[in-house]
Design goal:
This protein is mostly helical. Helices cover 61% and strands 0% of the residues. Helix 3 (45-58) packs across helix 4, helix 3 packs across helix 7 and helix 4 crosses helix 7.
Length: 198
């Protein structure tokens, strides 16, 4: 499975637990790489704080861990660096800048400087725009990721980051590598029948 196929599956909203094995293997490898990463490679410190804040608003900490707790920003940085084409990466980064510009125009400060209620207003606007774009593009042929704007990209990446983490996959999805019961000492059929008679 190549990068484009994997992103197309994720863009289509494919549930992580039902994704093809090769995609899950690639995402698990990405998860391991996140743990080895010592520094962000695409996002600047300001962009990373902004992305973390938005991801945490999408998947906040409750009785389970939130997006920030599972390294969503680091995962997003890795995906932007290694999986995304230059144009897609630039579109994402421009979206972060546009969000700050919108926050400054409305509230006189960048997104992370705004209180939670003002941040929520800005994300609601992005959500409404995302729904309008989806409705406009519905029924058109081609990949749903082509020309995709910043907020749908970020939402998809944040959800993928969360649900491919150990906490997200086990606590939320209840994903089991070996589902059901495993009894390693169960007798084989021949043992059940008893010793062979000669």
């Amino acid at each position: 499975m190549n990068r484009r196929e994997a992103l197309r599956l994720l863009a289509a909203g494919a549930a992580v637990q039902f994704a093809p094995g090769r995609l899950l293997a690639a995402l698990r490898q990405a998860r391991m790489t996140v743990g080895e990463q010592t520094a962000l490679r695409t996002l600047t410190p300001h962009q990373s704080v902004t992305v973390s804040a938005i991801a945490e608003m999408i998947l906040p900490r409750t009785e389970t861990k939130g997006a920030a707790d599972v390294g969503a920003c680091e995962f997003i940085d890795l995906m932007l660096t290694e999986w995304y084409e230059h144009e897609e990466r630039e579109r994402f980064l421009q979206g972060v800048a546009d969000l700050d510009a919108r926050a400054t125009a409305l509230f006189g400060r960048n997104f992370v400087g705004c209180p939670a209620d003002q941040q929520a207003v800005l994300l609601e606007e992005l959500g409404e725009r995302m729904v309008a774009e989806r409705d406009l593009n519905e029924g058109q042929t081609g990949s749903s990721e082509e020309g995709e704007s910043f907020y749908p990209m970020l939402r998809r990446l944040a959800l993928t980051a969360y649900y491919t983490s150990e906490e997200g996959s086990t606590d939320e999805l209840h994903f089991e590598i070996i589902p059901g019961r495993y009894d390693g000492c169960a007798p084989t059929q021949s043992e059940k029948e008893g010793p062979e008679r000669k």
